[in-house]
Amino acid sequence: MYLHVQRLINEIEADEPDPAAANALQEGLGGQFGEMRTMMQYLFQSINFRGPKGKPYRDLLQGIGTEEISHVELIGTTIARLLDGSPRYNGKPTDPLDTPGAGGDTPLRLALDQSNIHHYLVAAQGALPVDAAGNPWSGSYVYNSGNLVLDLLYNLMLESTGRLQKCRIYEMTDNRTARSTIAYLIVRDQAHENAYARALETLGVDWGKVLPIPKTNAERFPEVKKLLDVGLQSKQYSFDLTAASEAGRIFQGMSPSKDGTQLDATEQAPAGVASTIAEERFEEFSPGLDPDLLALIQATADLEMDAVQPLYGPLPAG
Amino acid sequence: MYLHVQRLINEIEADEPDPAAANALQEGLGGQFGEMRTMMQYLFQSINFRGPKGKPYRDLLQGIGTEEISHVELIGTTIARLLDGSPRYNGKPTDPLDTPGAGGDTPLRLALDQSNIHHYLVAAQGALPVDAAGNPWSGSYVYNSGNLVLDLLYNLMLESTGRLQKCRIYEMTDNRTARSTIAYLIVRDQAHENAYARALETLGVDWGKVLPIPKTNAERFPEVKKLLDVGLQSKQYSFDLTAASEAGRIFQGMSPSKDGTQLDATEQAPAGVASTIAEERFEEFSPGLDPDLLALIQATADLEMDAVQPLYGPLPAG
Amino acid sequence: MYLHVQRLINEIEADEPDPAAANALQEGLGGQFGEMRTMMQYLFQSINFRGPKGKPYRDLLQGIGTEEISHVELIGTTIARLLDGSPRYNGKPTDPLDTPGAGGDTPLRLALDQSNIHHYLVAAQGALPVDAAGNPWSGSYVYNSGNLVLDLLYNLMLESTGRLQKCRIYEMTDNRTARSTIAYLIVRDQAHENAYARALETLGVDWGKVLPIPKTNAERFPEVKKLLDVGLQSKQYSFDLTAASEAGRIFQGMSPSKDGTQLDATEQAPAGVASTIAEERFEEFSPGLDPDLLALIQATADLEMDAVQPLYGPLPAG
Amino acid sequence: MYLHVQRLINEIEADEPDPAAANALQEGLGGQFGEMRTMMQYLFQSINFRGPKGKPYRDLLQGIGTEEISHVELIGTTIARLLDGSPRYNGKPTDPLDTPGAGGDTPLRLALDQSNIHHYLVAAQGALPVDAAGNPWSGSYVYNSGNLVLDLLYNLMLESTGRLQKCRIYEMTDNRTARSTIAYLIVRDQAHENAYARALETLGVDWGKVLPIPKTNAERFPEVKKLLDVGLQSKQYSFDLTAASEAGRIFQGMSPSKDGTQLDATEQAPAGVASTIAEERFEEFSPGLDPDLLALIQATADLEMDAVQPLYGPLPAG
Amino acid sequence: MYLHVQRLINEIEADEPDPAAANALQEGLGGQFGEMRTMMQYLFQSINFRGPKGKPYRDLLQGIGTEEISHVELIGTTIARLLDGSPRYNGKPTDPLDTPGAGGDTPLRLALDQSNIHHYLVAAQGALPVDAAGNPWSGSYVYNSGNLVLDLLYNLMLESTGRLQKCRIYEMTDNRTARSTIAYLIVRDQAHENAYARALETLGVDWGKVLPIPKTNAERFPEVKKLLDVGLQSKQYSFDLTAASEAGRIFQGMSPSKDGTQLDATEQAPAGVASTIAEERFEEFSPGLDPDLLALIQATADLEMDAVQPLYGPLPAG
Amino acid sequence: MYLHVQRLINEIEADEPDPAAANALQEGLGGQFGEMRTMMQYLFQSINFRGPKGKPYRDLLQGIGTEEISHVELIGTTIARLLDGSPRYNGKPTDPLDTPGAGGDTPLRLALDQSNIHHYLVAAQGALPVDAAGNPWSGSYVYNSGNLVLDLLYNLMLESTGRLQKCRIYEMTDNRTARSTIAYLIVRDQAHENAYARALETLGVDWGKVLPIPKTNAERFPEVKKLLDVGLQSKQYSFDLTAASEAGRIFQGMSPSKDGTQLDATEQAPAGVASTIAEERFEEFSPGLDPDLLALIQATADLEMDAVQPLYGPLPAG
């Protein structure tokens, strides 16, 4: 069972809208090696896992899988921010009910020249479950052979490819909104690669100096270097509310990437940052309320509500 | 950000393996109107939501979306159990390292006659991200127009169609494992239908006597009736760890289905039941360990691990 | 612009339900060489047609394309009839509001063993836009190169392949409902093959004795022979309300199939037969009305309605 | 059974070629919420309809479905006109047999920079059965649950989403060819939304002030306003040749959109305008005739043809 | 550049037709981890290879890729043989022009109950480019990251998964035709797994005892054991006509699977066996010749032909 | 069984990188009418061929199919060359281990504006198995009806459409790298069209003056004219190592295109040109070796290897 907090797993820096960068990031969301895929793959591998003796391995998959849901949330929100307002249309007048297209205006004209016109035509300047070439995400991407060693090997390759593609995206744009998320995900992919490589070490593989695969030397990217300097590539959270996860039996010892760090699984979850709700885009008719509906919405927002009885608590005693 | 507990959201009854029922349930997992779709649709609608004044509506989407992840986990696990051991192969000898196919045996012969041979050939008797006709789940299913009223209307139709299909699946099998999950999801779909119908009521729609759509009179199904009798169709959990959700401003008052119940949003999450790990299936080479690897796995499971520092606690003070 | 009459283009014989035959016929509806494809292909070829001098060729495409819409209607209705009631559930009690699944019954159990479970789970015992292996129809099937000779050559091959597949379907079932439609479409495909072959003859090709392609000698099928005996393979209707079609400039002379008949384009449309509406299927919740809704439906059906002003008349003077 | 007249359902204004606008319009033709989808969805819903008492509802679906075929024809033709001649290649010399690419020319160079290179490479400057992002139309789009209320609800949402997307396309271009068709379809989608909303009113729903969904206030678009001023959003044609349609029992009374108009179902069909055939595009080898073939085509066009015997007449007595 | 010899790479044993086994083998032909995929993946990896210093690695990919084309030919032929004659129809009368369906016969009736009806309806009892669940092969399967280490790692995983699935297919059928090819491909997949594992060893990885992945102990399958006993899993052919391949620099030394064998790359190609042409199937209208066409075919077969000038010779001096 | 020589079937001229041209060529590689399709279609038609008397026809299919593999290799390599270095990034410093992205550089920025971002993000400036609109190649493209006449007719149409599209691509770019391959493939498609047209002539068809279809008069393209002048359109190689092919019984006599040439099947294979390996692209991390790995690669390249025993010889006696 899953629970949610209204926080993003990492902060997204503010910068100008940039629809081209938004589209490149779609590969990291809905691509074959993006976050929707890792999320679904590890979720299925956890559900279908066989062999009670392998619980630490199952828990490792389940913990990383849970993190990937938050990555979907993070990169999806980043894409939405990069698209939001990209038409540079006068979208925030005093009157909240604007007049898009009035008199024959074309506030969405720029959509015709963008990488994926669906960002404007279908998704109201929001993220889509597709890759950077517009292909919808497919269930056929999910790999779950049932054989533990093969699944670990595949996952190692999957995280490595995800990181490779994100390093290429980094080289495509210097938009700070895009890069803050890309850099974070590069380092987390590295952490997951370390996790699967370490799991294979417990089964007898010695990686020599071949890790990390690929050797993108991402420490040359300043935004990445900051995160590596605090060791984020060697940390794995449990994302487990009741301390039942045994992933820490695997994720410990020296990093298989031989960067001199120790693997560390002692944290439950990062603190994250509060999430916010995007502004209206009138030219997209989103959310598209007229005065009558707006009044009803407001009335609902003003209603009293009963207190919720918590089963799982917000903050344990320090 | 998402967290996990090692519990299933509802109990799965034990019964015989039944691969035909398992395949029918795939529609509820990976079909156009299944749980992967609702999960992804509400996740995207939450991420791309516009209009800070509409926070109760966003929180309603986010809460239901979080529940759907647990539904994916539940129905996926149910399918895996229905498939597990369906070859009726002598798979649990004293010696954990069995000899599938030795001497020319065909322990998987039954796979040739099943609805989806991939359950045995690809997924090692586990769940797949496909529908009951074998089509992989597609990102093109996700609907997120950005227009609030349209999204609510679509979601109402989506939950209604999901429930309609599950009622048909109910009529296809009396396997208790299958029915315990189907009945639970029928009632939860009804709760979500009520949630979206209620949200449209706050915008001025009066449904008359047309709800629920469709009128399947599922109380005629005994397993469903038990859940309706305790009012599960009129309850919505927040799944929110820090009590930030405002969904309860919408989900209150008389049920739009006019069954005489009050909508109730005062619980954070159901208690659920502990989850377990499936046994080995040697004929699938899953997880496929030989004595050497088994010893290494055991060594890892015996390792000490450091305590995890909780950020979100397991159990709040009563 | 298109208009409709509430008649089927050919009569469908009554016989027992037969879901396996229904599924085979799906290839003729939603397959790569089925009626949805010919309909869409000729519609696009008509819309995009270039060269005003080639009007007779455009009109030939347009007329056959219009016929194909009626073929979609015919084969779709045939499939629906073959599926209707196939669960042999007691579906027509005195009380129109039945109790499917009551007490744990499984009236749809047979769906688990059928070729395409979606016929019961998704389509309420109705036709689907998919082929006999369950693949959804795809726009990528449509061929329209813009080059007249190539398009004619492709269309000839398309009709020939459609006929080949329907002859194979004929050999798979002796259900009279299925065969009455299959036999009709075999002969109409032959007529269309003749049309495209004749169009290529006007451009200089001499087919020798190679037509028809393929030589299935379908006159050995009794239901087909009856239609050949009245020359249906050598007739092409205009389906044109204002006598503007010039297709008859092409479709005349001896048949290129060298069966000794004359091509004949002097009829506007066949007479067809009145169409009917299928009965309720309670176990599918289709159409799923309870007493309240039923009363409202009846009230609507009893309403007076204003007379419709015809622009195109029902029956010209003999 | 269907018949055709060689007229377009609405006039297409002349303007410059505009391949970017053409591509945006592809969403309205081959997109998930475009005309191919509405056409196919209503065709299947009519074929599979259950419940003889619901004939007025079936006839409503069938009439709108027939209109959608003409919409496919209209928007397809509009796209073809927007593409035609877009290379601005010297394509109409005295000699009808031009020399594309002679001496190494690149008359199609612009294709490399357009939204969908297939418009030039595959479709000879014609329309394609794909959406604005290039995805082929898929049979998986068609929704037909068999449950009447659900199908009506879905159709309402479908028309609303189609209109929303077309309003966004309107804001993307001011090309008059594109806008004349977009404006017409916005208003007809509104009429169909009214039809489905009215059908749900007959079943007891009271929409309050929530309609139309979405509230795009399209009367701010001048081309749309002209059509609203003559009430085109409140009219539904029967497209039925023999006055058998009972759709008028539903489509009457005040518009559910509460714009003060009366719904009106008393016309059979609009008058439309004569359709024409596009010119040759030599650089596409379309239709690609050399002098020999041209002479043969001419000879065919000059042939006498026999008179066609009408079954359904062109013009009823006033 | 590629050349062909009219020989199969391995002998196919004769046995009864078995359409269910044929369908299972489709996974090995057109599945995600089948021979079409390995063939295309290695072909693309060879074409796009970067780094002249890595020629031995490129040559290894190219040699294995060439072998995979012959595997496509082998498994495709095996599937065709398993399907051929499966209707047990009296298909070889004295008169070569039979009368399928005459008098209403249903010689293809069994097609309705088979795993993939397309084997009879579309493919005339031949192989299809689809997997065992009927999904068409997709270009999205091909992995070619451009990073050498990642590509090698992926290929290792790919061969391992292919072998895993083939071991499961082995357990599904004891048909000798199916097993002779399955056993051969299991051993060749093992050889390719050894090749990629060895390539990673040259880059510093030490696999410990983890290879082969997975540990299916396929020596328990008698047909496999025979091939392992002659060391076929440790042999790699160059398939190179001009001795330019340097793959032998990698494929040497002790097998990474630690079975005590030496890797051996000293053979150019296996001898294989002569291939044959399948008989007619009249009920499929395949090849569908009537007496006239048959006479023309015979006349062509009797024609003299000019001698072909060889560039690459059939047999080098011993 | 297939063998390989490390030579390209035709020379690729050097010119500047040109990613837009590269993308247009993708249609010729992975499009519905591209080389992957012809290769796979003829391979399947050869495997599934029925009728031993038709061996010359089978051999014709097999020989052309083998040539198509070399065409895939040729056009794939051409695309890779057109992409290679297109970022104009300083990629060849003295030090082979470059620093892409260091300090926040964006060496891959241009990828955001290209037709298919996957060329940079996924494929490391290499070819992809997709068409020019980014659709992955699909097994559903392959046509193999089993009926000989239909298959020949389809193949004729297929080659004709492939040539039509390549003539359009020719008109889109004057890049010499692109044109050298496009021109070669235009002429080879013409040769294959002649082959299938000739095969239909042997069955009695007289094409009159309708061939070639389409009449693109490609001799107006200078690069094409050079190849026509040496008669390359009337030559068909056997690609058969043991002189077993009987295709020459068909491919002889006057060309059906009536260009006055004689068909000639007396050559086994063209000489081709030596192939090379592409340089590193550091900004793609391809192949991505660091000094340690580079040293290991070099060590492997320096290893001795055993001589390969040839079964099929490199060069027969003159």
List the helices and strands and how they pair.
6 copies of one chain form a homohexamer.
Chain A: E1 2-4, E2 7-8, H1 19-30, H2 35-47, H3 55-83, H4 118-121, H5 148-170, H6 176-202, H7 222-229, E3 253-254, E4 262-263, E5 273-274, H8 291-302
Antiparallel strand pairs in A: 2-5, 3-4
Written overview of the protein:
- Chains A, B, C, D, E, F: GO terms for molecular function: metal ion binding.
- Chains A, B, C, D, E, F: It comes from Cellulomonas biazotea.
- Chains A, B, C, D, E, F: Its cofactor is Ca(2+); Mn(2+).
- Six copies of one chain form a homohexamer.
- Chain A has about 325 residues and is mainly α.
- The first copy, chain A, is about 40% helix and about 5% strand.
- The first copy, chain A, contains eight helices and five strands.
- In chain A, the strands form two sheets. Chain A has a two-stranded antiparallel ribbon. A two-stranded antiparallel ribbon of chain A has the order 3-4.
- In chain A, strand 3 and strand 4 form a beta hairpin.
- Chain A is globular, with a radius of gyration of 22 Å.
- Chain A starts with a strand and ends in a 16-residue tail after the last helix.
- The mean pLDDT of chain A is about 95.
- Chains in contact: A-B, A-D, A-E, A-F, B-C, B-D, B-E, C-D, C-E, C-F, D-F, E-F.
- Chains A and E meet through helix 5 of A and helix 5 of E.
